[in-house]
Amino acid sequence: MQEAVIDSATARDGAVLRRVLQDAGRLIVGKPRELRLALCCVLAGGHLLIEDVPGVGKTTLAHVLARLLGLDFQRVQFTADMLPADILGVSIYDRGEGRFHFHPGPVFAQLVLADEINRATPKTQSALLEAMEERQVTADGETRALPEPFFVVATQNPRHQIGTFGLPESQLDRFLMRISLGYPEPEAERELLAGADRRVMLRDLKPRIDGAALMALQAQVDEVHVADIMLDYVQSLLAATRNSPRWELGLSPRAGLALLRAARAWALIDGRLLVVPEDVQAVLPSVAGHRLVNLDGDNTELITDLIQTVTVP
Amino acid sequence: MRDALSMLPIPGRLLGVLLVLLAALMAPHALNLNPSVLAFFYIASAWRMLVIWRPQWMPGRWTLLLLMIAALALVVFSTGVADGRLAGTALLVVMLGLKLLEIRARRDIQVTVFLGYFLVMTQFLYDQSLALAIYLFVGVLALTVIQVGLNRVHADMRVQVRKTAGMLIAALPMASVMFLLFPRLDSPLWAISSSAAVTGIGDEMSLGDIGELTQSDAVAFRVRFFGPQPEPTQRYWRGPVLWRTDGRHWSPDIRPIRYTQPAGRRAAPLSYETTLEPSGERWLFGLDMVVDIPPNTRVDANGALLAAERLNKRFTYRAGSDPEMHATTLGSHEHALALQLPERLSPRVQRLAAQLRGDARAGDDAMPIALQALKYFRENPFVYTLSPGTLGSDPVDEFLFETRRGFCEHYAGSFVTLMRAAGVPARLVLGYQGGEYNPRAGHWVVRQSDAHAWSEVWVAGQGWTRVDPTAAIAPERIEHRIDTVRSQAGAQVVFQAAPDGVLSDLLRNAVWIADAVDLGWHRWVIGFSAERQSSLLQTLGLGNLRGLGLAIALLIGATLAAALAYLIARLPKPIVNDPLPRMWNRFIDKLRRAGITVHGWQGADTVCSTAMQRYPAASDQLVAINRLYVQLRYGRRRDPRQMQALRHRIRVLRLRPARQAR
Questions:
Q1: Which CATH number do you get for residue A114?
Q2: Catalytic site residue B468?
Q3: CA B566, CA B143: separation in Å to the nearest integer?
Q4: Is-above-0.80 flag for pTM?
Q5: How does pLDDT run across B286-311, given as a tens digit for each residue?
Q6: Within the 136-175 window of chain B, which residues sit less than 8 Å (CB to CB) from chain A?
Q7: Inside any domain, residue A12
């Protein structure tokens, strides 16, 4: 009887990815699910928005991912007086050569951490978001491609803090996922407090793969099969969000595409070349949470409820 | 996965709502059933309500058995089995109560909801009024919402209600077709028991009865005129004619009712449609005199209209009348009867009769004598009252010379006696007089308080002529209705005059509208009889379908429609006969039997890991089953060998509880 349903190459990919998660889990304790979602987001080639209060490890998470995936890392602290050029870069006239030289901004890195993105003015925010979408920067009439792979982790304080410009829904759509870390569980926190300095640990972290390998894995995500009945299932979920009175608007077709890509990546981390309902269910709260405007209550909970109203194929 | 749903745990809130709803739907039965039967149900219902919070109070199998025996005994001893309708309803009610006590799964709630629909139907065996129908319709809507909620397509209540309303609207065409075409029985399925019969005009009268009938505001019948409306003096609704008297009691001719040859439908100056409330009698009331005789009815020799059988349900008929017409037949038998006098007629009455005849100075001419009699009533202190007090052994004498207080029966009875004593053939007619016009509905409402008695005298050359002595003493009686509210016992009768204020005007309007709605309901819904149905079928060209044939035709039609609907419902499925879901369902069934809860929204991974936690020993098998299923179901290709492998693995799967865990 032939029962080998998972081919070995994919299994190897899955194993590598799970090792990345293991290593990351040593620094970011007690958050395996969030770590996996973040990795899933990278694999799917999307950008990640982390919404949380300060001090729960958002920056560390970005750092850890950059180290483990062998990506070069840039961090931009957003402030209210920041200008688009501070992110994208500026052209400066070089007297010796008698022409303009482009000095690339921090956005020219494989993994960009945009810290507290909602502190900047909408103009500066949109400069970054455009770069994220186009994966290129146009300055002084010249278009420059951003490095590959390119992955932005933006962090955002909860909207009700003073002096912030919350991202509008249309901009939030640029992020594949939104997650929040939240306070660690007591045991995890204990481990964190008793353990070594995170900065030291970070320095000692060895990359598991590099940028090229990551791009290969991203290409592999496209190979993950989505059966017709799974498309039916995704459509039912989309329709359910649209029919539900709990949200002003349902999920868009673009959100549907994002959901599928994320589900594929999630399956690959398991070493599977096919998408099962659980993959979709696992990523749905993070993919849909920031795209659905709800009138009250916690979206994550509502989405979990929603999942329970749709029968799997 | 339909099966998955039926096994889900019971949603407590939904059950609570269902219990309250059933209690509300049960409430109207308080008028019909023995209180102990209802009490049984309500106690069972309350018990089940408590169990929602205290599951340990759920009755066991043996308790239920005992309760069932008790319930059967209760039905037998409280209601008996003589009245099938009552016994059947009572049985349903107690069984519903017992069913509540054994609700353990969603499936049971489903059954309870269906019993709820039955409960709704039993209500209609006792009452078919519009108000109850509306109440129960809301109940049916709520039951269906629960049904939809049970299958939880959507958790939101408003969406469920909207969905239910949509379903019920979608069912309307089918329901309408069934309503119009379903074979009807001519008599009600459950004949109204005799206790339900309404007091009305019988075919006897006795002087000295207090005017109890006159005080009742119950509707006797409603009349809609096509064309001209009758004048106040023409509004005499003719009923039975009384001939024989012993001085106190008046009764009809003892000979069996003879029918005149129906004259067929003739053009009549006044044509109308009457809807008669159930009276338990055969009498129909037509405007004096009926010339256009409705089908299925007859006219007796006295010009009174009769139905073919006793009226135990509302009856609607069309008739035409000519107020100018007089009955012109007087056989020798009738002539003798029309002069029949009580055996003992007091000398005072005989003297008065002779005096009237003398004063008239008209020989045998009837009319002047009658006018003299009316003059006697007018010129002496006669009073129209509803509570004249009882009369002694010779009521006519007593009334004419001593009490002089009375209502229509007294006047008509005494008048006929006087006429006969004076040698004028006379007879007594029972019926209704007057009525109230409802401008909202465009029809006349005649109530029991409009019941009346008047007399007819034989005028040579003219025939039977109506003389209403009550009109002589209380002409308002003819022009206005008696105000039953203000006419207190013992006092002078108060007649209703023009409206006397905005409030009473509003009230009257409200009464009119309610009356119009009620009549419409009975005319178009309850009164849709076999006869109306067949006339509808005639117009549709289906006139030759009858009874069984119609039922078979309906059955075939409904089956075809259902088959078509089923086929259409199945069309969009891409794979019509996929063995994989069947295999999977078998696997799920196995898990369920092993005590694992499986929800419809859970994928194979989730299901298998739940099972693995419960049965760690079977982990390897479960993992293999999951892998195979996932590959087959969600993978690119389907390998038949994998199908076989999965089938085999599901078949050999054994789930045994891990002993060390216990």
A1: 3.40.50.300
A2: yes
A3: 24
A4: no
A5: 887 888 778 778 777 777 888 888 78
A6: 152-156, 158-159
A7: no
